Amino acid sequence: MRAGLGWCPRAAIFTLIVAEFASASVGQAAWAQTSSSAPPVSSETIRQTDKNKQKKSKVILQRSTDENGQTNDGPAANDLPLSKDLPSPAAASKQPEPPTTKTAPEAAPIAKDAERSALTYTDFDLDVRLRPAESYLAVRALVTVRNDGKAALSHLPLQLSSTLTWEAIRIQGRSVPFSTALLNSDADHTGQLHEAVVALAAPLTPGGSLQLDVTYSGTVAQSAKRLLAIGTPEDAAAHSDWDRIAPDFTGLRGFGNVVWYPVSTVPVILGDGARLFDEIGTHKLRLAGAHLRLGLTIETPPMLVGSGITPGVALVNGRPVTLTNFAGADASVASVATGRVEESTLGFEALSLFVATRTSHPATNVTLWTRPESDHNVAAWSSAAADVTPFLQGWLGVKPRSQLTILELPEEGDIPFETGAMLATPVRAASPEVLDGVMAHALSHAWVLSPRAWLSEGVAHFMGTLWIEKQQGRDRALAALDSARSALALAEPESPGASDGQPLVACISPVYYRTKAAYVFWMLRDLVGDPTLSAALRAYDPAADTARDSFEKLIEQAGQRKSLGSFFADWVYADKGLPDLAIESVFSSKASVPGSFLVSVILTNNGYAAVEAPVQIISDSSSVTQRVMLGARSKSVQRILLQGVPTEVRFNDGTIPETQVTIHSKSLEPPKP
Question: pTM (2 decimals)?
Answer without folding.
Answer: 0.83
